[in-house]
Amino acid sequence: MFESLSDRLEITFKKLKGQGKLSEQNIKDALREVRIALLEADVNLNVTKAFIRRVQEKAIGVEVLKSLTPGQQVIKIVHDELVAVMGAANESLNLANQPPVVVMMAGLQGSGKTTSTAKLAKRLIDKERKKCLLASLDVYRPAAMKQLQTVGEQVGATVLPTEPTENPREIAKRALEEAKKGGFDVLFLDTAGRLHIDEALMSELADVAALVNPHEILFVADAMTGQDAVSVAKNFDDRLNITGVLLSKTDGDARGGAALSIREVTGKPIKFLGTGEKLDGLEPFHPDRVASRILGMGDVVSLVETAMEKVDLEETFKLQEKLANKKGFTLEDFLTQMQQVQKMGSISDLVGMIPGAKQAMKGKELDVDDKQIKRLEAIILSMTKKERQKHALINASRKRRIAAGSGTSVQEVNKLLKQFVQTQTMMKKLGGMGGLGKMMKGMK
Ligand code: GDP
């Protein structure tokens, strides 16, 4: 998310960095570009106008602090305003109530409600040892009930058996009784969605909410729908008084307009981001970290947290040590590293989180998916030990042999070698910047 906005702002601020003094004119010029950047990122027009006005008021007439350059000063003001617009601090689910805490999930069909329900339950089960009950109120789509059953069981939650012949209010009541009887900590109600806002659906949801009085009504917004997500959120909020937003599919959204507009338009915080189809693709939303990421300052805290959760630190340290000892980065290391990185998420996302690395890696082909990793593994394993250690040995005839041995093509072998060389360059750069391993070692 935010790639395009981030790139534009980077250029704008670069110009400002060269200026010795902050004048009304150069602030105005910079803010005009920030305004265009925000609109291009699909940020709501009113939100953009208010944002620019606030930054301008703060920037003009402010004494440039001796310790800062004018460019840094404006970036700091924009950063703080971005944080303010997205909601200051992370707000999590309100679990402080007497259990069972009732969380109602609402949103349009296909926004990601069912998937997100399972993701949230997984998080609570794995991280907080909560006992979760899930119930589907979608009596219109038996497939949706089945889907909740499947994903719910996958994450170790209990799923209430329901029938399409029941009425949603009955199911909600039964689920609440069951949650009380069974000593559940959290009850998730996965409600029905429609393709568009629909009066009948809204009144059904309002009825259910009035009946069970949920502690949380989370609106699931599809980030890829941009401004539509914002207006639908406003509609749901007007009707249901939502307590927060889960912004799904942020992995498919390069612009980030919904993330920057929803809070300002609805007054309700984004609590979580959906970051992938898999059931661990969920992150708490931290406005300050996201603002830093947008401004290309790198979201080191999230990077380290992701890394700590998923990666075999020993492997990473070994790799880092190897680089520090200048033994060189070989194709075998490349394979290990790819396998590690794959666990963390896409490489470009990660690179975006490392301060300074984004610019260095611009335009490089870095992303890998599961299938690619398997092919990559096959190619590297079809090389001789010598070849793995010294990739320069791999000439045309060796490439043909490796391609045949791994069931791939010479083009693929070439592509891998190209990626390897790019990564080798990146590793050298990171090594010079202190490196990922060192950074994580400091956290240990
Ligand atoms: P519902 O109709 O609102 O319950 O939506 P679903 O949970 O069935 O999700 C609709 C589609 O979106 C499914 O194919 C999900 O796999 C996909 N999806 C949900 N959340 C995410 C996400 O964060 N990232 C991506 N890429 N896909 C998601």
Which terms summarize this structure?
444 residues; Rossmann fold; 434 Repressor (Amino-terminal Domain); alpha/beta; Four Helix Bundle (Hemerythrin (Met), subunit A); 21 helices; 9% strand; binds guanosine-5'-diphosphate
Question: Mind sketching the topology for me?
Answer:
Layout: H1 3-17, H2 24-40, H3 45-59, H4 70-86, E1 101-106, H5 113-128, E2 132-136, H6 142-154, E3 158-159, H7 168-181, E4 186-190, H8 199-212, E5 216-222, H9 227-240, E6 244-248, H10 257-266, E7 270-274, E8 282-284, H11 287-294, H12 300-310, H13 313-324, H14 331-344, H15 347-353, H16 357-360, H17 370-381, H18 385-389, H19 396-406, H20 410-432, H21 436-443
Bound molecules: guanosine-5'-diphosphate (GDP).
The site of guanosine-5'-diphosphate has 19 residues, from helix 5.
Subunit structure: Part of the signal recognition particle protein translocation system, which is composed of SRP and FtsY. SRP is a ribonucleoprotein composed of Ffh and a 4.5S RNA molecule.
GO cellular component, one term: plasma membrane
EC number: 3.6.5.4
How many angstroms does the end-to-end distance come to? 29 Å
- Structural class comes to alpha/beta
Report the β-strand fraction as a percent range: 5-15%
Bound molecules: guanosine-5'-diphosphate
CATH class of the largest domain: Alpha Beta
Q: Average pLDDT, to the nearest integer? A: 81
Order of helices and strands: HHHHEHEHEHEHEHEHEEHHHHHHHHHHH
Quote the CATH topology of the largest domain.
Answer: Rossmann fold
- Order of strands, main sheet, comes to 3-2-4-1-5-6-7-8
Counted beta strands: 8
Tally the structural domains. 3
The CATH superfamily of the largest domain is P-loop containing nucleotide triphosphate hydrolases
What's the CATH architecture name of the largest domain? 3-Layer(aba) Sandwich
Number of helical segments with 4 or more residues? 21
* C-alpha Rg (nearest Å): 25 Å
